[in-house]
Amino acid sequence: MSIRNEAVEQAYREHWARLLALLTAELRDLDLAEESLQDAFATAVSSWPPVPANPPAWLLTAARRRAVDRLRRTAVATRKLPLLVVEEQPAHDDRLRLIFTCCHPALSMEARVALTLRCVGGLTTRQIARMFLVGEATMAARITRAKKKISQAGIPFRVPAGPELRERLDGVLAVLYLIFTEGYAATEGDALIRDETASEAITLARMLVSLLPDESEVRALQALMMLHHARRHARVGSDGRLVTLAEQDRSLWRHQEIEEALALLAPGPPGPYLLQAAIAAEHTSAARAQDTDWTAIAALYGMLEELTGSAVVRLNHAVAVAEASGPEAGLAMLDGLEAELPHHHLLPATRAELLRRLGRTEEAVTEYGRALALVGTQQEREFLLSRRTETERGLRP
Amino acid sequence: MKYAMLIYGDDKLWEQATPEQAEQTRAAHERFIAMLSQRGAFLGGDALAGSRETVSLRKKDGHVLRTDGPYLETVEHLGGFYLIEAENLDEAIGYAKACPEQIVEVRPVVEYQE
């Protein structure tokens, strides 16, 4: 929506998700609810000011009226899609049902991401398309297909209960984290879009925290994203190159955001997000790179590795151990990782770095060669090349 | 809503089952059907004969091409189906989880309105 009406913009930010969730429960049709609400906001753009005393109530009435109009216009015969299955769940905020419906595992991951940004985040199709570097028509088709599947497959508008809740909540968190990391990965070049995507993911996490305040993993996810995002201005140098954590100018970090993130972290059962947030917190609370508590970080990675069994986590664990207890100890932990990470350039790159520190120069040069054969981005290639040249220079008498 | 649960598996494994194993499978399905019926969810279902007993027809321009075997050449074939009534997809998936088979595809049935 290209709106230049401050009151409408504010109402949009504050009330979109809540109104859409409410209308969806009433109308039992996500598509109809979304279109009618969109119409209501468009009407508001032309008729505000005067701003009504109760903007959300005004918008809800307008949207209901538009829904009736739309239903009247489209003859009953053409509306073949079954109505949404809405369960009576007065204990839950309707927005929570909307989130669980948009993140249902029967939808593809792509569809979950797009639908969550559209319906819960209130972003326009054009904005979402720009974030994921696809055409607007492609994104519109993706969202339409997803809404159709919700209706046709009978994906319910409900918050899962009992043991199912835990599993499904993990799925919701994965969608939010994917929005965050995809934003970073897909649009590394365009800082503006990247920051917009990342802050949208944080906004969604903040909403989820307000809806499920007792879930420590939800709070941890918000904290984790904020801790990463607080370093956004220090991650890229003036020449456009990535700056490693150790070399970042820590005065460029947003310390107020870091404080807010740290305040979210409370002791809880050690889930994957809480452990990752705790690691990020260790990094951000060191005044200088050399003040980093690598022993604590290595212990946290150890717990994370035990929990996830992930080879990438083991690689990071080995790096932390090398920092805490020396390169030899780190190197030993990399043994046998080839089978699990055969195409990951960071494995030979890490091994090369540790061998270099141990003075095993020839082996290091070989490993840099392996890493260069696997590396994808130009920025990392340049970094590895300069590292290899430096190491080779050490070889000459 | 109505859903079809399509059961896939390797014909060979079904054929090679010992009488005891076959009996166990049959009993497991009977218990499953009893559970569905108790909840008013059972609308129908049957086991299908193996892919060797199958013939496929393809019609084009008035001609009928007949081939021996299933339409799709895969290791796992459609070996049976259930038709169930469920409140929503979550409930249907719950039933599919309880179904005593390894591969179960859940398909919503298109219901035409008058």
From TrEMBL, chain A:
Residues 168-266 form the DUF6596 domain. One of its GO terms (biological process) is DNA-templated transcription initiation. Keywords: Sigma factor, Transcription, Transcription regulation. The keyword Transcription regulation applies. It holds the Pfam family Sigma70_r4_2. The keyword Transcription applies. This is RNA polymerase sigma-70 factor (ECF subfamily). It comes from Nonomuraea dietziae.
UniProtKB/TrEMBL annotation, chain B:
Residues 1-111 form the YCII-related domain. It holds the Pfam family YCII. It comes from the Bacteria. Gene3D superfamilies: Dimeric alpha+beta barrel (3.30.70.1060). Belongs to the YciI family. This is YCII-related domain-containing protein.
